[in-house]
Amino acid sequence: MLKALFLDMDETLCDTHKANNIAKQQLAKKAESICGSSLDSKQFAERYVQGIYRQWTPVQQQRYMPIIEQHSEDVFRVQLIQDLLVDMQQLAVTVDDAQLLQNCFDKERLAAFDFFPGIEKFLKDMRKRMTLVVITNGPEFSQVPKVQRILLEQHVDHIIIGGQEVEQKPAPSIFAKALRLAGCENHEVIHIGDGLTPDIGGANASNIKSVWVRHNQSFDKTLGIKPDYIVEHPDELPELMEQLLK
């Protein structure tokens, strides 16, 4: 019998991809207004998002991890902007201008950040029957504002932000904390997420059944990660969960 539902936030409950795209467009416009038309502003915005999602080269990792650990996520993102613009052969921008660009992205993304259609009703229905725990990876700097933006605490019972924990998904420790909060054993829970390695791999390692929200992602079988159930889009979750709860 299922007693709890563990849920990822980004791309599972919320359309982060849409919010990112809107923010990238506005960041590109702002960057062009500061740097001029010689800047490939779309490429700059794309590279910025890759950077904040830690899609780094080994050299970038050596540069940015100490900044994050010794200073803050905000300082890292401002430095990332300055580095990208120099790499794209722009005149060095001031820290103030880089901060303006970083603030622009955060403001626009947060304004556009919201649940996928139908998810609020889904959470309301599920909460009547199970304990709901959100487990989201990411730095406190970005995840806390997103949680607050959608008033997530009004829709679920517990929220775990990976950046506030010792380890993030797929580490067993974060799933163990979710089990403690829910007061359940692993066989009484199912975890839903879009990340094959962090969500499904993490659930597998903790002997928790899983639902992969695929979003047309390729399924790399060489990873040895197998979800128990697959849906293509979050709008399929209500029907699946109704079947599992029968």
From TrEMBL:
Q: What class of enzyme is it?
A: hydrolase
Superkingdom to which the source organism belongs: Bacteria
Hydrolase among keywords? yes
Note the Pfam families from the entry: Hydrolase (PF00702)
Gene3D superfamilies attached to this UniProt entry = HAD superfamily/HAD-like, Haloacid dehalogenase hydrolase-like domain
> What residue range is the signal peptide?
none
**Gene Ontology BP term (one):** N-acetylneuraminate biosynthetic process
Keywords associated with the record: Hydrolase, Magnesium
What EC identifiers does the entry list? 3.1.3.29
Instruction: Name the InterPro entries on file.
Output: HAD-like_hydrolase, HAD-like_sf, HAD-SF_hydro_IA, HAD_sf
What molecular function terms (GO) are annotated for this protein? N-acylneuraminate-9-phosphatase activity
Q: What is this protein called?
A: N-acylneuraminate-9-phosphatase
Q: Which organism is it from?
A: Paraglaciecola arctica BSs20135
